[in-house]
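S.,

Sequence below, as promised.
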Amino acid sequence: MRILLHTCCGPCALYPLRTLRTAGHGVTGFFYNHNIHPYQEYLRRRDAVLQMAELEALPLIMRDEYDLEEFLANVAPQPDKRCSYCYASRLRATAEAAASEGFDAFSASLLYSRYQRHDEIRELGEQIGKELGVAFYYQDFRPGWQEGIRLSKELGLYRQQYCGCIYSEKERYLPKASKI
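The prediction came back faster than expected:
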């Protein structure tokens, strides 16, 4: 099966990529992460994906768009629902690219993270896939969490400290006492 894998970052894509290849799938990466903040962080993650793709001989489709304003316009009214928008917008972009480029399925490296909502990602992926006529490939890659960390360190990839958006950056770095 030819799978287009949404690649949120280099470290999170390693384990899913290797797992899918071991299962005999052809994998192409898809980079589209308009939600990353600040811009310097976006660049670090983009560059880490490019580095990982080169090291892993991963074909990569780049949608190199930093659109913080669009992201904020869609999540600012309800920041607690930001992850749903973030998942849906990136999965939709991946599915559109998969459909237009003739892939058999699409998936996401988000399924590697133990911090993401797998049920919601799966539901959205399947719904979007049905709308666009391309299958969503679900696999729980969380069992490879430690392996992915080890691999990314061995390869010297930049490892981010928060999910990506301005809200997750605040949650990560704001001292706990200040959150009251």
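The chain has seven helices and five strands.

Coffee later?
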